[in-house]
Amino acid sequence: MNADAIIIGAGACGLMCAVQAGYLGKKVIVLEKNEKPGAKILISGGGRCNYTNQFASAEQFISANPHFIKSAFTQWTVEDTIGFFETYGITGKEKTLGQLFPDDKNAKDVVAVFTSICADFGQEIRCNADVKDIEILPEGFKISYEKNGKTIILKSEKLVIATGGLPIPKMGATDFALRFARKHELKIIETAPALVPLTITGKDEEWFAQLSGNSVFCEVSNNEISFEENILFTHWGLSGPAILQISSFWRRGETVNLNLLPHQNIVSLLDDERKNNGKTLLSTLLNRIYTKKFTDALGKFLPLNKPVAALTKSEIDLIEQTIHHFKVKPAGDKGYDKAEVMRGGIDTNEISSKTLESKKIPNLFFGGECLDVTGWLGGYNFQWAWASGFVIAQNI
Ligand SMILES: Cc1cc2nc3c(=O)[nH]c(=O)nc-3n(C[C@H](O)[C@H](O)[C@H](O)COP(=O)(O)OP(=O)(O)OC[C@H]3O[C@@H](n4cnc5c(N)ncnc54)[C@H](O)[C@@H]3O)c2cc1C
What we know:
Layout: E1 3-8, H1 12-23, E2 28-31, H2 39-43, E3 52-53, E4 61-62, H3 70-75, H4 78-87, E5 92-94, E6 99-102, H5 107-121, E7 124-126, E8 130-137, E9 140-147, E10 150-161, H6 176-183, E11 188-194, E12 198-199, H7 206-211, E13 215-221, E14 226-233, E15 237-239, H8 241-247, E16 256-259, H9 266-277, H10 282-289, H11 292-298, H12 313-324, E17 326-328, E18 332-333, E19 341-346, E20 364-366, E21 374-375, H13 380-395
Parallel strand pairs: 1-2, 1-10, 2-7, 10-20
Antiparallel strand pairs: 3-6, 4-21, 5-6, 8-9, 9-10, 11-19, 12-15, 12-18, 13-14, 13-16, 14-15, 16-17
Helix pairs in contact: 1-5, 1-13
The chain binds flavin-adenine dinucleotide (FAD).
């Protein structure tokens, strides 16, 4: 045997697993397809890495089994994440909504924490190591990987698959875990891009092109859930945090509702203005709320040049509908090239929630994004990756 365990994937989960195994005196070898470890950590949060969320709980995750992550989140808490990084000189600063980023450091420093602890413990991270095959032996696993055109074989009693999800193939994302699961008849919950911009196509939506570059604070909702954050209009559709959030809950053909003024009521604003100065043009009133460009674009729907006192009941209804119930029917999403995470993955019913070991294949562990555990935007996905890496380390 080459090590106590082999970990496939030096991403957030695999690196945390290697480090935690080191604390427990276990020797692991991490195999990573990319030239360097932690590729997604490096690009996360715009290079600043939103490494956890102060409010993370099972509530902010999508999974066919919403209870699955509770055990891991009890074993490794948000406080554990904060404390771990503080020990290595990274203190968190809340940006918004509980999202923690390194205060005066960035994503590179987050990766450096892991690589330096691995070096201290002698945990080996082998890069440019593309794992091609796993053979299940009576005494453990035989792992074949390719490095510089050569096939290399390793053996270990315990194996960790932490190869992540499908987003951003050009950064090394593979379907390795899903292929393995299919081959061994582990159930998979249907996968799709999540935390992904939504596209709008067709003539009616040329309106969106005019709005390109505008960012508006909105409440975005569907029949299931709502999020309040900014949305960004682009020439091809909609992006921004609130859209990324709803995208994880959106299904093709569904309509999304945009409340363009979530904290005020446009009808009350119109009533007040009518009492104060009925001559105010609708455009003037809207310009107090939105940018001129955005107000002008609303002119496609609304009688902007009418004084508020002259608005008819049906025009007021139209204004209310447009501002508070603006409906868009996305044509699709920007796919795995632009998604931050994958929805779905290996069915958590195949895995012990306490140890993250496969129920069917003993001594095989799965963690991170390859499982059917998808967090909201805001540091939740890393919290899951760290927690699952920790739990696996206790059990290998
Ligand atoms: C642009 C972007 C920004 C993001 N920002 C944030 C953020 O700020 N906060 C947050 O919480 N989440 C963020 N995420 C999500 C977060 O990056 C992932 O949820 C997290 O990295 C998943 O961890 P993981 O260890 O499961 O997978 P990864 O971190 O993806 O690691 C998997 C590793 O396995 C390797 N691998 C795959 N196949 C093989 C193979 N066959 N052989 C060897 N190695 C292999 C890959 O190269 C990769 O390095 C972001 C994602 C993206 C794409």
